């Protein structure tokens, strides 16, 4: 383990909590004391609950091919449904409410990941890469915001393939992972070439919820397996982004501290546990946890 990561990681090794899945994604800690995650490419995709006892239960099947998940201010589960191309919320009675399926009358692409702000706004990435060109109604891949009143706005309209996203501890900066430019990037990797379209951007979030001053935060250029995907931030401002070879860790200035390596390539990560100091990884066929030395930024909840 690189010396700089020894200041970050408490565990000596990741602990595998389960395996045998098709492709795990969407990790989330629920304040009632359990993990949620998705077996994304299972048919149909299932949302699971994993209790600390090790007991696993089905929460939703089918799930509309849910990918990223978060909780709103009231603690309700919010989901990015790729198959149905919408953002939904699970009500206390288990029913599903649609929060957004269009922007300015145009159907969303396939929402990928989502994060909440303490003002009630929900920000989600809307990449176009998994939608056939003939089926795209929005002419850009971007980042959208759902306001508490249900209004959907586009806050970033010039991204390539936006994926995971996370806020800084003060919520003034939004970090967004860019997976690739197009299919050429995958072909580059298959040839053993470095993909130069893998990076993290940062945006300032204004009081009105708009995103400004888009800029490069960190490069994640690599020829190795994996792409910039899910992302989280700790209370000291470090950014953790799943990517080639493992979980890339950066300080708050974008300096690369090292890579947390698992036995499988991770796609996403989440903070959790009673002290919010455990990191949960969804990694291909398996799920893992590791203890960290710094708590993660909490999901905003009403007092």
Q: What would a concise description of this structure say?
A:
Keywords: Hydrolase. This is SMP-30/Gluconolactonase/LRE-like region domain-containing protein. This protein has 303 residues and is mainly β.
Question: Describe it for me?
Answer:
The chain has helices at residues 3-6, 183-190, and strands spanning 15-19, 24-30, 34-39, 46-51, 56-60, 66-71, 77-81, 86-90, 96-100, 102-103, 106-107, 114-116, 122-126, 141-146, 152-159, 162-167, 173-178, 199-205, 211-219, 231-233, 239-243, 246-250, 256-260, 268-272, 278-283, 286-291. By secondary structure, the chain is mainly beta. It has a single domain, classed as 6 Propeller (Neuraminidase). The strands form seven sheets. A four-stranded antiparallel β-sheet has the order 1-26-25-24, with no helix packed on it. Strands 2-3-4-5 form a four-stranded antiparallel β-sheet, with no helix packed on it. The radius of gyration is 18 Å and the shape is globular. The model has no long low-confidence stretch (mean pLDDT 95).
